[in-house]
Amino acid sequence: MPTSIFSTSEEYLPAARRELTDVWGKRAAVERLGPDVGALTLPDATLRDVSELCRTRPVSFVKHLTAEIARVPVDEARDLDAVTRRALAALPEDLPSGPLAVQAWVSGQNPAEYGSAQLFRGLADALEKQGFEVVRSGAPAVLSACITRSGVLLGIGNPTDSLSDWPGGRVRLSRGPDTISRAEFKLEEAIKVFGLGLPRSGVAADLGASPGGWTRILRTHGLKVWAVDPGDIDPRLLADPGVHHARTTAGNFFASNQTRFDVVVNDMKMDPRLTCDTMLTAAQRLRPGGTAVVTLKLAHGNVVEVVHKCLARLRKKYEILHARQLHHNRHEVTVVARLR
Predict the structure, then answer these.
(1) 297 is a catalytic site residue
(2) CA 160, 307, 212 angle in degrees (round to 5)?
């Protein structure tokens, strides 16, 4: 039966299992293969079928998918050449034309004497000898290789069905000279992974903006920004005429400010139910079809139920486009929505 290998966060793998079994019921067999990697086996369900439901249901705690083509047991996997031979033999014959991306990563304890970089290079060298053009991303097909304690998992997919065009969904972003805070990476990742098209002009509200990381990202996309926070904003942003600092709470801001916004973002540290209430208030100031990006902060307990209740609450005003725990989220889920 078809098996999809999925990646998640180690702490939230039980939540991913719960979501997957909620969707497919007793038809689904979910197996843990590593600290943050599992396998979903379903009769007559292709990777595309699984990916489509993960996006539309949505399944919030699965970050990355690939269709399993081989498992190399640990004794054999210690020999890198053996892994590359198994990978070449397992490649489907109907690969789309064009370059082939190779993505390698490690889940948990590594029993091999090589790491993800060496695994990538070994696979790339072997494929190039067979005439393939090998890249790291942006290809119509992706060969995934994950090293686990029990061996190497091999899978094939494409960027759309994989949910993320990064190894295991682990998006890597680095600080630049203009970076204000690491919180910026969450918004940057959402833009990259979801293909989020922000308007090239217009007005945005950044709720809980301090010190201004998300405001800076919005400004790089050409939006004028109201940075709403009682706390301080980075002086570089205050010198920008396209940034207005409202030193107040979100509730007071919307009670006194009549501006119509094209985008509202919210990364405030508060109970997710209160976050949803704030976003329902914000909906009154969004233009029709306006975009909302919000992070739901998760505590211990039934996080699946919390997320589903929050999404149901947001649906009173919004169409949910995406809801997923991203690599740069810790104990939170990023939601992208559009005003109904």
Answers:
(1) yes
(2) 80
Going across the sheet that includes 134-135, the strands are 29-34, 37-41, 3-7, 64-73, 151-157, 141-148, 100-106, 134-135
Catalytically annotated residue among 186, 224, 297, 317:
297
CA distances from 181 to 26, 188, 229, 311 (A): 44, 12, 15, 27
**Would the pLDDT of 240 be above 90?**
yes
pLDDT digits (tens, 9 = 90+) for 70-119: 999 999 999 999 999 999 999 999 999 999 999 999 999 999 999 999 99
Structure tokens given for 131: 């005439």
* pLDDT band at residue 200 using 50, 70 and 90 as cut-offs: confident
Q: CA nearest 70: which of 131, 133, 123?
A: 123
* Dihedrals phi, psi of 314, to nearest 5 degrees: -65, -30
For the domain made up of 3-169, the CATH class stated in words is alpha beta
Q: What is the pLDDT of residue 1?
A: 77
DSSP β-bridge partners for residue 258: none
CA dihedral 149, 152, 156, 159 (to 10 degrees): 50
Distance CA(325)–CA(190), nearest Å, equals 10
pLDDT at 235 over 80: yes
Contact 263, 202 (CB under 8 A): yes
What ranges do the domains of the chain cover? 3-169, 184-339
The number of angstroms, rounded, from the C-alpha of 277 to the middle of its chain's C-alpha atoms is: 24
CA 332 to the chain's CA centroid: 11
Rg (CA), the chain: 22
* 3-169 shares its CATH topology with 184-339: no
Model pTM? 0.95
Q: Which CATH superfamily is domain 184-339 in?
A: Vaccinia Virus protein VP39 (3.40.50.150)
